[in-house]
Amino acid sequence: MKEKIKRSIKKISPVGIAMGILFSFNPITKHKVKADVDTRETILTTFGDTYDTFLKEPFVILLSEQSAKYDYTANNENRAYKAPTFNKGEFGISVYDYYKNQNFSKKIKVFYEDGKVEYKTIKHGQQLLIKQAGIIVDLNPDASDLYEHDTYYITQKQLDAGNTGIALTNWQTYYLKSDNNGHMNGPLALKYIKQEFPNIKPGSASFDLNKLFHALPGEKRKLATITSNPVKASGIFSYTSDELAEIKRHELTIITQHKNKKESHR
Q1: Measuring CA to CA, how many Å separate 75 from each of 152, 154, 171, 181, 239?
Q2: CB contact burial 66-75 (16+ within 10 A = b; e otherwise)
Q3: pLDDT at 256 over 50
Q4: In a shared domain, residues 168 and 199
Q5: Which listed site, 63, 179, 213, 240, has its alpha carbon 20 to 30 Å from 134?
Q6: Cα–Cα distance for residue pair 219/34, rounded to 1 Å
Q7: For residue 114, what are the contacts with CB-CB under 8 A and spacing of at least 6?
Q8: Rg of the chain over CA atoms, in angstroms?
Q9: Domain-located, residue 206
Q10: Residue 5 reports pLDDT greater than 60
Q11: Residue 34: helix, strand or coil by DSSP?
Q12: SS3 for 119?
């Protein structure tokens, strides 16, 4: 089982404060903000047949609400969060609703290098794939308090590695690194084993968890396989001096008012 990471009150770094200021002060330049338009830099997509079917299934309790709110472990994958896909050239941001409400969504704000600004609404079972370095995302664009904005700069190094991403949920934000070791998600594996092999009881001589896991149908084995490891935000976001200079260079062109009445959502 992955080590549980203790959650603490978020400390705002000087970079975070600076980036929050960029997105909150009155605009020096005006931008129309568009919503949900795929571009070569960002694409909204789903996860393929197996996951799409699972994500549309009626709600059943796979994890207690208390654990979904406060536990921060890899075993929460497909129970409290859905990991984005991990591919070179992409940084994914996914959304998962604990209750599997198909209308649940999260809105983020995307700032492009050329000064363009967009809102993106990501629904339960979707992910936003970012394919261009230099994009800045605000995961909490409507926050009234400057310090509640949650902003990150996507680097070329991240895209080249293709092994980090973010999962947004009802209560938590998961900062993820990919895990390709094929570890089973114990609670989910046990649930599916009980469904597929009801006559084999846990604790009996014939109960071999690992063997039974590999005997599961492919789709259930896939759902019960861990693909990500939750880490601290600093574990996937760190900036070089050149990247900090780039953020500074774009300050005047990406300053917007987070509740600008002229923003377009067409």
Answers
A1: 26, 27, 16, 14, 29
A2: ebbeebbbbb
A3: no
A4: no
A5: 179
A6: 37
A7: none
A8: 20
A9: yes
A10: no
A11: strand
A12: strand
Amino acid making up residue 218: G
Q: What is the DSSP letter of 81?
A: B
Q: Same domain, yes or no, for 152 and 197?
A: no
Q: What is the pTM of this model?
A: 0.82
Q: Report which of 215, 155, 164, 185 is spatially closest to residue 76, judged by C-alpha positions.
A: 185
Please name which of 241, 159, 256, 235 lies closest in space to residue 3, comparing C-alpha atoms: 235
Is the distance from CB of 164 to CB of 88 less than 8 angstroms? no
Residue 24 has pLDDT above 70, yes or no: no
End-to-end CA distance of the chain: 45
Contact criterion met (CB below 8 Å) for 131 and 41: yes
CA dist 265 and 195 (Å) reads: 45
Tokens linked to 105? 């969504």
Distances, alpha carbon 82 to alpha carbons 29, 40, 52, 98, 119, in Å:
37, 24, 11, 10, 21
Residue 188 lies in a domain: yes
Arithmetic mean of pLDDT, 240-259:
64
Question: 156 with 109, same domain?
Answer: yes
32 contacts 265 by C-beta, under 8 angstroms: no
What is the average pLDDT value for the chain, to the nearest integer? Answer: 83
Question: 149-188: string of b/e by CB count within 10 Å (b at 16+)?
Answer: bbbbbbbeebbebbbbbbbbbbebbbbbbbbeeebbbebb
Domain that holds residue 204: 184-225
